[in-house]
Design a protein that fits this description.
Layout: E1 6-8, E2 14-16, E3 19-21, H1 28-37, H2 47-58, H3 62-65, H4 68-74, H5 77-104, H6 111-119, H7 121-156, H8 163-183, H9 185-216, H10 236-246, H11 263-292, H12 295-300, H13 304-312, H14 319-348, E4 358-360, H15 367-371, H16 373-383, H17 386-414, H18 427-446, H19 448-459, H20 461-470, H21 476-493, E5 495-497
Antiparallel strand pairs: 1-2, 2-3, 4-5
Helix pairs in contact: 2-9, 2-11, 2-14, 4-5, 4-10, 5-10, 5-11, 5-18, 6-7, 6-17, 7-8, 7-14, 7-16, 7-17, 7-20, 8-14, 8-16, 9-11, 9-14, 17-18, 17-19, 18-19
Length: 500
């Protein structure tokens, strides 16, 4: 009979015959299994997955299709490249501000959570309301329409694609993204990494031949790059507006803070690495475009990446629409993954139906929170005027992002003792906050009608807040209806409250 050896480790666990046993008698492996079986979201977002979420949501169809907005308003090749760089730096300032918020307020939910912490439930609900009824369904429908258009293009080339075919392909794309996010957090994150790699590959296919042309001496389009004859100061704010829109998406990791492994380290690191990669990709892609196209040719092109590929890559240009479609799909997946957590947190705070904060008993996904956007998105896809909604979507986005960063500055003075593992110099949020409110002012000046509609949609959140949230004494029939709704959905979706 052999003796069983035992030793005690610094962490208080005892190893017996090679198995670690905790002081309460349970093995560490068994404890881990129990944690995995617990009905909760868990911490499954690693550094690589965090980077893939940020890059995957920032890089959509824009860089492949229409970088001409910046060139048009900046007036010259050199100024357009400078705008791309400066917009990358400004976006980094915003991302760093959010990194501080994400490390001192360790709750998921992004904008909603930070406004709630800084300015209270009423302002947070107005943001949530605008997102739920207009902004997010419209944004999801538009990026999905781009997916439907480009996934079908190789099949119909050179003919025009029937609009109904585009909408059907779009509906299939939306449904598949919803299904993926409903079934598995792990697989959603893995697919996001794969799609992000495909985006970077597509950008590499543009950058590498472009740089080769540049080193061969194709520099004629860069001659007099900073010629100021066509530069108008009045157009520069619009150029920056377009550039900042192209970088939008750096805040999505903050929607998942509770699921991030070691958020104090992972969130700032993922944000910095992602913004460096995206800024380099955007600037080098635009340099590559100019090695093949003059400024006039780029402004005349409807899809810049396709024109570039036709000029330089020959038959391989057929693959470009497929890469654009995959890029759009990655943005759809990343956005839905993040946004569902905002609805999950809002439900947990009592501002949305209780069922939205419940987890599927086997899949461990916030199933109801994932599906909430599906009916509104499909409705807008087939019957709504999506593009009119998008005209003021940018205004509302920058208004509330500015409010969030203003909240960071406000919290520095109202809660100076709040632990801040990552703290940015104060000038960074101040500069970014000023930029956001300047873009809001620009919207008010350039498009007062759509800006007014945006304000009106936001303000409908006020009566909704007082009717559904503020008044504790709801009519009994309404309370019974809400309880019945929650129970019915809970049974249908097989979801339960998250275990702590």
């Amino acid at each position: 009979m052999t003796k069983r050896s035992a030793s005690t480790h610094k962490d208080g666990n005892v190893t017996t015959s090679g198995h670690k046993v905790s002081q309460n008698g349970k093995s560490v492996e068994k404890q881990q299994d129990e944690d995995d079986k617990k009905v909760s979201l868990g911490k499954k977002v690693t550094l690589v997955r965090g980077i893939s979420i940020i890059i995957g949501t920032i890089i959509g169809a824009g860089i492949f299709i229409a970088p001409k907005g910046i060139l048009k308003h900046s007036g010259s090749v050199g100024m357009s490249l400078l705008v791309w760089i400066l917009c990358g730096v400004l976006s980094l300032f915003g991302a760093l501000s959010y990194a501080e918020l994400g490390t001192c307020i360790k709750k998921s939910g992004g904008h909603y959570t930070y406004i709630l912490e800084a300015f209270g439930p009423q302002m947070a609900f107005i943001r949530l309301w605008a997102d739920l009824i207009a902004i997010r369904p419209a944004a999801m429908a538009v990026i999905s329409l781009a997916f439907g258009q480009y996934i079908l293009e190789p099949l119909f080339m050179p003919c025009e694609i029937p609009p109904l075919a585009v909408k059907l392909a779009t509906a299939i794309g939306i449904t598949s993204v919803m299904y993926l996010n409903s079934m598995s957090v792990t697989w959603t994150a893995r697919i996001q990494i794969l799609l992000t790699c495909s985006k970077l590959l597509a950008i590499g296919i543009i950058i590498v031949p472009g740089m080769y042309q540049l080193f061969k001496g194709e520099t004629r389009n860069f001659e007099n790059a900073f010629e100021l004859n066509n530069v108008k100061l009045s157009g520069m704010p619009l150029a920056f507006y377009s550039g900042m829109y192209a970088y939008t998406g750096w805040f999505y990791l903050n929607f998942l803070t509770e699921e991030v492994d070691n958020p104090e380290r992972t969130v700032p690191l993922a944000i910095c690495i992602s913004m460096a990669i995206v800024t380099c990709c955007y600037v080098l892609t635009n340099v590559a475009y100019f090695t093949v196209m003059s400024a006039e040719e780029l402004l005349a092109s409807e899809a810049v990446a396709v024109t570039f590929a036709e000029k330089l890559l020959g038959n391989f240009s057929v693959a470009v629409p497929v890469f654009v479609a995959l890029s759009c799909y990655g943005s759809m997946n990343g956005c839905l993954f993040a946004l569902s957590r905002m609805f999950y947190v809002a439900s947990r705070e009592g501002q949305l139906p209780e069922v939205l904060s419940m987890i599927h008993v086997r899949k461990h996904t916030p199933l109801a929170a994932v599906l909430i956007l599906y009916p509104m998105t499909m409705l807008q896809l087939f019957v709504g005027d999506i593009y009119s909604l998008l005209n003021f979507m940018s205004f509302l986005r920058w208004l509330f992002i500015g409010v969030v960063v203003l909240g960071l500055i406000y919290l520095r003075y109202t809660k100076p003792d709040l632990p801040r593992p990552f703290k940015v110099p104060l000038f960074i949020p101040i500069i970014f906050c000023f930029t956001c409110f300047f873009m809001v002012f620009l919207s008010l000046y350039s498009d007062p009608v759509n800006t007014g509609i945006g304000f009106a949609i936001s303000l409908t959140g006020l009566p909704a807040y007082y009717i559904f949230i503020h008044f504790n004494q709801r009519p009994k029939w309404l309370q019974r209806a809400l309880n019945s709704f929650n129970r019915t959905l809970q049974i249908l979706l097989v979801v339960v409250p998250a275990e702590q």
